């Protein structure tokens, strides 16, 4: 190492140490304040609220400071004039302000040239320096000189920034968890990350173009830039499945952001974790907008009338409830246009009104032919009696019951007759796809249906108020109990004392006591949002968005009426039959033409050799689609091996062993047709006990066997695709599935097949 290089290392290490000292100082300060707050107690309700807010603030600050411990500072910009700027995961101000700022947050506008400056357009930057660190120790420096006039050779490529650091990141072993890319964000990605908050932005990009990475960094950017607004309303990131959410789960915490709700569609109905699996064809039927009519009919079918009449016992007499009375009441309630549970009150009022007239007719008829003898007050009393009569209530409940979304959907999907009545617009084959067992669990495609039903059913305010009143009564009863104990202990301790002693009982009544002890809601917006179906998010980010059905989009749009959304996906990778192959189709109904399309064109994951194979598959999906350009080659040719059918499991195991040895610390993914998953999974597990297989495989294992659908959005150092012709044949979107499968590799790709290779893989023959 030249002496100037080692001088550089030494002085940068010294600066790094200053930064960590400052971080430690701030951490100690926050820790100390938090400790003091935790020790404080009592005070007024406002005081306590304030303390709670401060506690949350310092806890979050500490979490943020802990999160940035690794890679605190990763870059430096030198300018033609002025002092250099250091770029990091967090902004740090100096203790003495003349040295400010010590470190600039990567999201601050001043950091932008770090991602955008090039030799051709340096924006005043003369040098961009990447600092490589391990813990608190500087391990290396990569410099890019951007000032061509300074005489230094610019070298490197013009299409990437920070080439050395980028290539180091791209060729590193995969770990089963996605890493942040904050040190090497490329300019086309930076544009997306820093776009404004409002409106719908669709980011279309081929595999490996960094859509997921960009979506996550955009969440961090938006939270930094619009902190107040978004902390209150929350940001939702919707991903395709729980395995994928675990894969990306570390990225935002490593960027010191934790207040984001990561969820799958299956999590979007509070109280339901929809994890059951169903055929894609069934999900496709559930995803169509035709289900709106089916659901509306299913609710209407619950508003029934008897064949002729119903009879109940009222006040010792049989009371006939005529079909026509119920029909009129039902028509009036339906005409109100209110949701079913809300309109119920009107149905009951109308029915009771008609029944009271019927009773008046019976008992108030003037034998002399004059007006009815019952006064208005008598009629009101009759109505009151009818309303309070449990038998009448029960009968009316039967004709217009209070319903929950789960009840309506379960009853519908488990009953061929109900389905036939409500889903008359579907074909018999489609209805057969919908029919399921009563004890089958909820699937993700059920969730938008439950959400739609919640809208159709509504919540009866009187019921809600009754429930709130019940809860409050319980709390007051409890408080009275507490106060009684206090009173009891006073009489024991102080009854023989002369002077008056003020007890809690004298200064507070039970209701007020409850109010004072109401628990403060200290949950983050993300936590509160997860528990509330009607929560409206400040921003919604959707990953693998091409897979969502029209019904799922309705649910999402309800959660985001401001339409502040970032939608990332690739219409060439759609595997769900309910998914989309054009973005226009998705957004036209909600925002017309008012959405922005941005395209990412560079593939950071898949090396050129693998992408050449993928390009042939893509051409078969749609010749008009362009594959993204690989940023690097791996120097390894993809391979294919034909094996006898009986030897397939043994050959898979052998290939896994070879690839695991090649991958070293890296990860191996075996992607198989759905029909073979169970058998091959079992065989692999027998030979490689640590392998991850099954519904939700643990990606931290070195070897993972899964279907292509499960592998959506994931990547492995080495990928073995098994029986590609079966993957193609398994679904009408089988070619897209094969495209997804081959583009999961970051280094090596192999194909095992027992029949002829499909034509689209001819380059491997
Ligand atoms: N600027 C970057 N610097 C370093 N690594 C990057 C960069 N951009 C993307 N990557 C890496 O490339 C890989 C692919 O990124 P990502 O998964 O976000 O792509 P994607 O477009 O979502 O792919 P797919 O459509 O196949 O799911 C990841 O390992 C990611 O970390």
TrEMBL record:
InterPro entries: DNA_helicase_UvrD/REP, P-loop_NTPase, UvrD-like_ATP-bd, UvrD-like_helicase_C
Binding residues annotated for ATP, in chain numbering: 205-212
Entry's Gene Ontology molecular function annotations: helicase activity
Domain UvrD-like helicase ATP-binding positions: 184-607
PROSITE patterns for the chain: UVRD_HELICASE_ATP_BIND
The keyword Hydrolase appears for this protein: yes
Keyword Lyase applies: no
Entry superkingdom: Bacteria
Keywords, ordered alphabetically: ATP-binding, Helicase, Hydrolase, Nucleotide-binding
Name of the featured protein: DNA helicase
